[in-house]
């Protein structure tokens, strides 16, 4: 997608991120995981209500043929609906946003940048198994999920506000991903850092 004037205005405080938004070498997507009524409801709907998340974009450079996506950028603008202590974002909301930024590396690689609807008609097996009452280990077999996330809160995150999260894929194996994400403000000052391990659900993977 091409960023709209509204997007550019919303994320103007993140001057360091504007070149990514406007570069022809970067793919820009609205944060989207499909519209299934029993999946992703919290991030698709709940966190966006009551003056919460107002704009949420996910970006990554177009990979060369046969190459994986190694880095991504997530941009989030939010209102006072995410506040915890006065003037700051609630820690739980921050962890959710960071987890989703980490997830986008998986989404971009496992599903493809132009098909982020991982709960959609092209991936219906999980829904059939869920409807049959099968355990999560079967429903999610083959999908990467968060197994570990070490978080460092470096500075308060102002609320309302706008942040960018730079994410890097550090290690990729058949059943495991190691990913690092850093949330930054308009001056590119680190606010929050997360080092995560994602594992693929299956016989050899454990949550």
Automatic annotation (TrEMBL):
Q: Tell me the protein's name.
A: Thioesterase domain-containing protein
Q: Where is the Thioesterase domain?
A: 87-188
User: Which InterPro entries does its entry note?
Assistant: HotDog_dom_sf, PTE-AB_protein, Thioestr_dom
PANTHER family hit by this protein: THIOESTERASE FAMILY PROTEIN (AFU_ORTHOLOGUE AFUA_7G03960), UPF0644 PROTEIN PB2B4.06
Kindly give the Pfam families that the UniProt entry links to this protein. 4HBT
Q: List the Gene3D superfamilies hit by this protein, alphabetically.
A: Hotdog Thioesterase
Q: Which CDD domains match?
A: hot_dog
Lineage top rank: taxon: Eukaryota
């Amino acid at each position: 997608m091409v960023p709209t004037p509204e997007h550019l205005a919303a994320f103007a405080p993140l001057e360091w991120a504007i070149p990514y938004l406007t570069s022809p070498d970067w793919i820009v997507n609205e944060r989207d995981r499909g519209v299934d009524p029993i999946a992703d409801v919290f991030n698709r709907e709940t966190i966006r209500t009551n003056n919460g998340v107002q704009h949420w974009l996910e970006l990554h450079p177009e990979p060369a043929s046969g190459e994986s996506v190694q880095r991504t950028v997530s941009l989030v603008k939010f209102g006072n609906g995410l506040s915890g202590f006065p003037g700051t974002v609630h820690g739980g909301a921050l962890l959710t946003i960071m987890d989703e930024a980490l997830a986008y590396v998986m989404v971009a690689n496992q599903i493809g940048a132009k098909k982020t609807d991982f709960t959609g008609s092209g991936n219906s097996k999980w829904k059939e198994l869920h409807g049959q009452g099968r355990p999560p280990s079967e429903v999610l077999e083959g999908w990467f999920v968060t197994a570990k996330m070490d978080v460092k809160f470096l500075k308060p995150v102002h609320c309302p506000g706008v942040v960018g999260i730079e994410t890097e894929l550090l290690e990729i194996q058949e059943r495991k991903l190691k990913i690092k994400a850093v949330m930054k403000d308009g001056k590119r000052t680190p606010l929050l850092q997360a080092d995560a391990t994602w594992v693929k659900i299956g016989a050899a993977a454990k949550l």
